[in-house]
Every structure is written in C-alpha cells, then in structure tokens.
Amino acid sequence: MTEVFEPLGEDRWYSATLRLFGDSLDLEDAREQLPSASVQLSRKGDHIQNNPRFAKNRTNICLVSFGKSSAEPWEPRLLRLLETAEPLSGWLAHVRNLGVTTEVFLGYSSETGQGGGGISAETLSRIAALGLSLDLDLYPPET
C-alpha cells in the first residue's frame, strides 16, 4: 500500500491543549476535576509561567496539555483529550455558564511552511458536543 502522506519529520510539531480561562474559574475546583500532572493552573495577576520577566495573567487559567511533538499528529492527541473531557461534560457546562471560556487549542509549526493535519468529522462532532470552541494556531517557519 502506498503512503498518501509523508511521515512526520523533525521539521514540524503538533500540540493539543484543553484551555479554560476566566475570572470566575475556581482553580481549586479545576484541580479537583482534573487531577493530572499535566494540568497547569495560573491565577489572575500571577506572572505567566511564574516568571517575573513575563507579563501577568489577565484572568485565571487552567491548561491541560496533551503534548507537543513531531511524532504524533492532532487526531490521537484529541482522542486522549476527549477521553479526559467527556466524563466532565457537566462540569464544563457549569463553568461555561459562569462565563469561563472552554476550548481546545491546537498548535502546528513546520520549518518548511508546508504540511498540516486533519481532524475527523467524528472527532469534531465530539468536541462540539462538549461545547468546546476550537482555536487553531499556525506558527510560521523560523527565518
């Protein structure tokens, strides 16, 4: 069988993150709902990444990262994200009703400026069923 897509190389990377942010986001509640080592919580007014050289957060933020690498495209990352988020659908709806933004953030970069990735209709439907927005960030090649 002929490969339709070239294998992923080190010249590109993909990332997927579940992002929740808003002044009404209770970070202690988020920690209880998402007991994972990959959860990053930041309070409004704290420096980004707790680094005083960076700006301060304008709101409370909860990030659940599903990795960044060249070896795996979006779809398998999104399936893991959905396995985490779907059991929390009621809680996600609750925080959204409090004014918290809930979204899936996808990043992609390629040194050549070429390539991309696909997401199946089934996966997009599952994301939509959770009421999650989809934010796509494409990074240009470094010059």
Number of helices: 4
Write down the overall geometry.
Answer: globular
Total number of β-strand segments?
5
Number of domains: 1
Secondary structure class reads: alpha+beta
* N-to-C series of helices and strands: EHEEHHEHE
Descriptive account of the structure:
- There is one protein chain.
- The chain is built from four helices and five strands.
- By secondary structure, the chain is of the alpha+beta class.
- The protein has one domain (12-139).
- The chain has a five-stranded mixed sheet.
List keywords for this structure.
4 helices; 143 residues; five-stranded mixed sheet; alpha+beta
Topology diagram in text:
Layout: E1 12-21, H1 27-33, E2 39-42, E3 61-69, H2 74-85, H3 89-97, E4 101-110, H4 121-129, E5 133-139
Parallel strand pairs: 4-5
Antiparallel strand pairs: 1-3, 1-4, 2-3
